[in-house]
Write a structure and sequence with these properties.
Helices cover 34% and strands 9% of the residues. It contains 5 helices and 4 strands; from the N terminus they run αββαβααβα. Strands 1, 2, 3 and 4 form a 4-stranded parallel sheet that branches. Helix 2 links the parallel strand 2 and strand 3. It is globular. The chain starts with 7 loop residues before the first helix and ends in a 17-residue tail after the last helix. The C terminus is likely disordered.
Length: 174
Protein backbone atom coordinates (compact mmCIF):
# COMPACT_ATOMS: atom_id res chain seq x y z
CA UNK A 1 0.00 0.00 0.00
CA UNK A 2 1.20 3.47 -0.76
CA UNK A 3 -0.01 6.69 0.77
CA UNK A 4 -2.09 7.54 -2.28
CA UNK A 5 -4.00 4.28 -1.81
CA UNK A 6 -4.91 4.83 1.85
CA UNK A 7 -8.70 4.83 2.10
CA UNK A 8 -9.92 5.49 5.65
CA UNK A 9 -13.49 4.75 4.58
CA UNK A 10 -12.45 1.28 3.41
CA UNK A 11 -10.70 0.72 6.75
CA UNK A 12 -13.82 1.81 8.63
CA UNK A 13 -16.01 -0.43 6.45
CA UNK A 14 -13.68 -3.34 7.14
CA UNK A 15 -13.97 -2.71 10.90
CA UNK A 16 -17.77 -2.76 10.63
CA UNK A 17 -17.81 -5.94 8.55
CA UNK A 18 -15.46 -7.61 11.04
CA UNK A 19 -17.85 -6.79 13.88
CA UNK A 20 -15.51 -4.34 15.61
CA UNK A 21 -16.97 -1.99 18.17
CA UNK A 22 -13.84 0.17 18.60
CA UNK A 23 -11.10 1.38 16.28
CA UNK A 24 -7.95 2.42 18.14
CA UNK A 25 -5.02 3.39 15.90
CA UNK A 26 -1.58 4.34 17.16
CA UNK A 27 -1.55 8.10 16.78
CA UNK A 28 1.90 8.65 18.23
CA UNK A 29 4.37 5.80 18.42
CA UNK A 30 7.57 5.68 20.44
CA UNK A 31 9.50 7.11 17.49
CA UNK A 32 7.72 10.47 18.13
CA UNK A 33 6.27 10.77 14.61
CA UNK A 34 2.65 11.88 14.95
CA UNK A 35 0.12 10.54 12.45
CA UNK A 36 -1.85 13.78 12.82
CA UNK A 37 -1.20 17.51 12.83
CA UNK A 38 0.39 18.37 16.16
CA UNK A 39 1.23 21.74 17.62
CA UNK A 40 3.97 20.08 19.69
CA UNK A 41 6.12 18.70 16.88
CA UNK A 42 6.84 19.38 13.25
CA UNK A 43 7.52 15.64 12.93
CA UNK A 44 3.98 14.80 11.88
CA UNK A 45 2.12 13.39 8.89
CA UNK A 46 0.70 16.77 7.86
CA UNK A 47 4.01 18.65 7.70
CA UNK A 48 6.17 15.76 6.47
CA UNK A 49 5.72 12.72 4.28
CA UNK A 50 2.13 12.09 3.23
CA UNK A 51 0.79 15.58 4.12
CA UNK A 52 -2.39 14.06 5.59
CA UNK A 53 -3.94 13.91 9.04
CA UNK A 54 -4.64 10.19 9.10
CA UNK A 55 -6.07 10.12 12.61
CA UNK A 56 -8.62 12.89 12.12
CA UNK A 57 -9.73 11.35 8.82
CA UNK A 58 -10.03 7.88 10.36
CA UNK A 59 -11.88 9.21 13.42
CA UNK A 60 -14.49 10.83 11.16
CA UNK A 61 -14.92 7.69 9.03
CA UNK A 62 -15.21 5.41 12.07
CA UNK A 63 -17.69 7.60 13.92
CA UNK A 64 -19.80 8.05 10.78
CA UNK A 65 -20.39 4.28 10.96
CA UNK A 66 -21.37 4.33 14.63
CA UNK A 67 -18.15 2.82 15.97
CA UNK A 68 -16.29 4.04 19.02
CA UNK A 69 -12.98 5.76 18.37
CA UNK A 70 -9.90 5.54 20.51
CA UNK A 71 -6.29 6.62 20.19
CA UNK A 72 -3.03 5.11 21.38
CA UNK A 73 -0.03 7.15 22.51
CA UNK A 74 3.34 5.42 22.92
CA UNK A 75 5.42 8.59 23.14
CA UNK A 76 6.40 8.01 26.77
CA UNK A 77 8.66 5.20 25.54
CA UNK A 78 10.63 7.74 23.49
CA UNK A 79 12.70 9.08 26.40
CA UNK A 80 15.10 6.15 26.49
CA UNK A 81 14.37 4.37 23.23
CA UNK A 82 17.05 5.71 20.89
CA UNK A 83 20.78 5.15 21.13
CA UNK A 84 22.21 8.67 21.04
CA UNK A 85 25.65 8.79 19.48
CA UNK A 86 27.49 11.00 17.05
CA UNK A 87 27.63 8.01 14.67
CA UNK A 88 23.90 8.41 13.97
CA UNK A 89 21.50 11.27 13.41
CA UNK A 90 20.14 10.57 16.91
CA UNK A 91 23.20 12.36 18.29
CA UNK A 92 22.58 15.55 16.32
CA UNK A 93 20.86 18.19 18.50
CA UNK A 94 18.92 19.36 15.42
CA UNK A 95 17.08 16.03 15.55
CA UNK A 96 16.18 16.07 19.25
CA UNK A 97 12.62 17.11 18.41
CA UNK A 98 12.22 13.65 16.90
CA UNK A 99 14.59 11.48 18.92
CA UNK A 100 14.36 13.38 22.20
CA UNK A 101 17.16 14.80 24.28
CA UNK A 102 19.51 11.99 25.36
CA UNK A 103 18.55 10.62 28.76
CA UNK A 104 19.76 7.61 30.66
CA UNK A 105 17.48 4.60 30.41
CA UNK A 106 18.15 3.85 34.06
CA UNK A 107 16.73 7.10 35.39
CA UNK A 108 13.27 8.52 35.67
CA UNK A 109 12.35 10.56 32.59
CA UNK A 110 13.02 14.27 32.98
CA UNK A 111 10.31 16.75 33.81
CA UNK A 112 10.76 18.14 30.29
CA UNK A 113 9.97 14.77 28.73
CA UNK A 114 7.06 14.05 31.07
CA UNK A 115 5.60 17.49 30.32
CA UNK A 116 6.04 16.94 26.57
CA UNK A 117 4.30 13.56 26.88
CA UNK A 118 1.45 15.06 28.91
CA UNK A 119 0.99 17.90 26.42
CA UNK A 120 0.73 15.44 23.56
CA UNK A 121 -1.67 13.23 25.51
CA UNK A 122 -3.87 16.23 26.31
CA UNK A 123 -3.73 17.31 22.66
CA UNK A 124 -5.09 13.91 21.64
CA UNK A 125 -7.94 14.17 24.13
CA UNK A 126 -8.76 17.70 23.02
CA UNK A 127 -8.63 16.89 19.28
CA UNK A 128 -10.72 13.72 19.16
CA UNK A 129 -12.50 13.33 22.52
CA UNK A 130 -11.70 9.62 22.27
CA UNK A 131 -13.90 6.95 23.80
CA UNK A 132 -10.72 5.14 24.78
CA UNK A 133 -7.13 6.26 25.12
CA UNK A 134 -4.22 3.91 25.50
CA UNK A 135 -0.70 4.52 26.72
CA UNK A 136 2.40 2.35 26.63
CA UNK A 137 4.90 2.41 29.46
CA UNK A 138 7.20 -0.19 30.90
CA UNK A 139 8.86 1.77 33.69
CA UNK A 140 9.31 1.24 37.38
CA UNK A 141 6.67 1.99 39.95
CA UNK A 142 7.79 5.59 40.61
CA UNK A 143 7.47 6.50 36.94
CA UNK A 144 4.22 4.58 36.52
CA UNK A 145 2.81 6.48 39.48
CA UNK A 146 3.75 9.78 37.86
CA UNK A 147 2.27 8.68 34.52
CA UNK A 148 -0.97 7.56 36.17
CA UNK A 149 -1.11 10.86 38.02
CA UNK A 150 -0.90 12.66 34.67
CA UNK A 151 -3.59 10.44 33.15
CA UNK A 152 -5.89 11.08 36.10
CA UNK A 153 -5.29 14.81 35.72
CA UNK A 154 -6.52 14.51 32.13
CA UNK A 155 -9.44 12.40 33.32
CA UNK A 156 -10.49 15.12 35.76
CA UNK A 157 -10.70 17.55 32.84
CA UNK A 158 -12.65 15.13 30.63
CA UNK A 159 -14.02 12.39 32.90
CA UNK A 160 -15.84 10.49 30.15
CA UNK A 161 -12.73 10.11 28.03
CA UNK A 162 -10.58 7.75 30.08
CA UNK A 163 -11.96 4.66 31.78
CA UNK A 164 -10.16 3.52 34.89
CA UNK A 165 -10.89 0.17 36.55
CA UNK A 166 -12.47 0.62 39.98
CA UNK A 167 -9.82 -1.60 41.60
CA UNK A 168 -7.10 0.78 40.44
CA UNK A 169 -8.56 3.85 42.14
CA UNK A 170 -10.91 2.85 44.96
CA UNK A 171 -13.38 5.60 45.75
CA UNK A 172 -12.95 7.35 42.39
CA UNK A 173 -16.27 8.54 41.01
CA UNK A 174 -16.52 8.17 37.24
Amino acid sequence: MTESNLDVNAWADLAVSAGAKYVVPVGLFHDAFAMYESKYTSWNSVKLGPKRDHITQLASAVRARGLKFGISNHFFENWGWFHHTSQYDTGDPQNYALYNVPESETTTPSLTHRTNWLNRAQEMVDKWHPDLIGFASAYGSKTRTRVLSSIFSIMLVRPAMIRVPAWLMPGLKS
